[in-house]
């Protein structure tokens, strides 16, 4: 199949003392092989909740209450539902089919092990026929792909800069040729120059290896450069899903438009950040209508009572009443 990941109706709740809080509601999207899908939203929009749910890294009190996440292996085997997969089967997929790069590179690398040895371990664990020498050679090659010189293979993580550690983490995630890599703000800890180098490398590696990426960030400008398509999240829902070009040129949701105007593109000089006045709604007390209504410059009467659902509009999707009224924001 041409699809590597098929997320359908995913709902995640935080169970607490009172009423459970919906952090993700009815999230649905499909990812094509080799595609980079960006997920963008402010903090509290549910984007991190979403990816911890779909990679099964979530911890209580977060619970997936509905939906499925079908992963389609390349070899034509039956798709598996990541939400319901046994821990043993899930472990078998990790690194070889599905890799995860999280915010802090430090956590992914073992501080008391030489960098190269960590690659050798990962490679040989998944291919027991690989010789030690071949694994070291591959480790040095992988580091080279992210611009880290081969002699660094003998260094310990603390001897590397933050940017190098982050690039090494990405290379490690790709060592076993996964079909899907999930990245959560992998460049937040590094400066802008390093960030751009890392993104360029991700694109280059994707061309070489052909993996698909789900890339989560609060920074839309970064996704405009990196992603093929972008899903915009607000109050736990996808409110717009479109190609990066469409998001940049013709955002359909007023929130997407606000986000686009909040961040200058990476190549442009930083001028004034417009920002979006107000803050996201409290998930414990969501309004009955559109969750963006209080901040929306185009709010209409029906927005206060009717929740807009994500609906297709010419090859893209948007959840906003303006579009069945035929109004462009
Ligand atoms: Fe604004 Fe109404 Fe669209 Fe919500 S549904 S984004 S309030 S116009
Ligand atoms: Mg986060």
Structure characterization notes:
- The chain has 329 residues and is an alpha/beta fold.
- It has 2 domains: 3-97 and 178-323, Rossmann fold (3-Layer(aba) Sandwich), CATH 3.40.50; 99-177, no CATH class.
- It is 30% helix and 23% strand.
- It contains 10 helices and 12 strands.
- The chain has helices at residues 47-54, 87-93, 105-108, 115-126, 132-145, 162-174, 192-209, 220-226, 244-249, 254-262; strands at 3-14, 21-32, 36-40, 62-71, 80-81, 98-101, 180-184, 212-217, 229-234, 237-243, 311-313, 316-318.
- It has an 8-stranded mixed beta sheet with strand order 6-7-8-3-9-10-12-11, with helices on both faces.
- Strand 11 (311-313) and strand 12 form a beta hairpin.
- Helix 4 packs across helix 5 (132-145) and helix 6 runs parallel beside helix 7 (192-209).
- The longest helix is centred in the middle third of the chain and has 18 residues, at 192-209.
- The two termini are 37 Å apart.
- Iron/sulfur cluster binds at residues 253-254, 290, 292-293, 296, 298-300, 303, 308, 320-322.
- InterPro entries: AAA+_ATPase, ABC_transporter-like_ATP-bd, ABC_transporter-like_CS, Oligopep_ABC_C, P-loop_NTPase.
- Belongs to the ABC transporter superfamily.
């Amino acid at each position: 199949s041409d699809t590597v990941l098929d997320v359908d109706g995913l709902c995640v709740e935080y169970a607490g003392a009172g009423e459970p809080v919906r952090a993700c509601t009815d999230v649905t999207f499909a990812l094509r092989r080799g595609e980079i899908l960006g997920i963008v939203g402010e903090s509290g929009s549910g984007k991190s909740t979403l990816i911890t749910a779909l990679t099964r890294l979530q911890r209580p009190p977060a619970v997936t209450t509905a939906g499925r996440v079908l992963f389609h292996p390349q070899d034509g085997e039956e798709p598996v539902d990541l939400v319901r997969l046994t821990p043993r089967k899930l472990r078998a997929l990790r690194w070889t089919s599905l890799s995860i790069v999280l915010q802090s590179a430090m956590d992914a690398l073992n501080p008391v092990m030489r960098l190269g040895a960590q690659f050798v371990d990962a490679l040989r664990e998944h291919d027991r026929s690989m010789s030690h020498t071949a694994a070291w050679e591959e480790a040095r090659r992988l580091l080279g792909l992210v611009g880290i010189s081969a002699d660094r293979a003998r260094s310990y993580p603390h001897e590397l800069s933050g940017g190098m550690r982050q690039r090494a983490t990405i290379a490690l995630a790709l060592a076993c040729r996964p079909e899907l890599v999930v990245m959560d703000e992998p460049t937040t800890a590094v400066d802008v120059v390093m960030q751009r180098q890392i993104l360029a490398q991700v694109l280059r590696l994707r061309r070489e290896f052909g993996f698909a990426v789900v890339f989560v960030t609060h920074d839309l400008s970064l996704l405009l450069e990196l992603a093929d398509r972008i899903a915009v999240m607000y109050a736990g829902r996808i409110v717009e899903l479109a190609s990066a070009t469409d998001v940049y040129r013709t955002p359909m949701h007023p929130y997407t438009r606000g986000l686009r105007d909040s961040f200058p593109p990476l190549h442009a000089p930083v001028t004034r950040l417009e920002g979006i006045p107000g803050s996201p709604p409290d998930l414990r007390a969501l309004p009955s209508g559109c969750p963006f209504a209080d901040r929306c410059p185009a709010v209409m009467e029906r927005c206060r009572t009717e929740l807009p659902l994500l609906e297709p509009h010419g090859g893209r999707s948007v959840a906003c009443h303006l579009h069945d009224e035929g109004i462009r924001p």
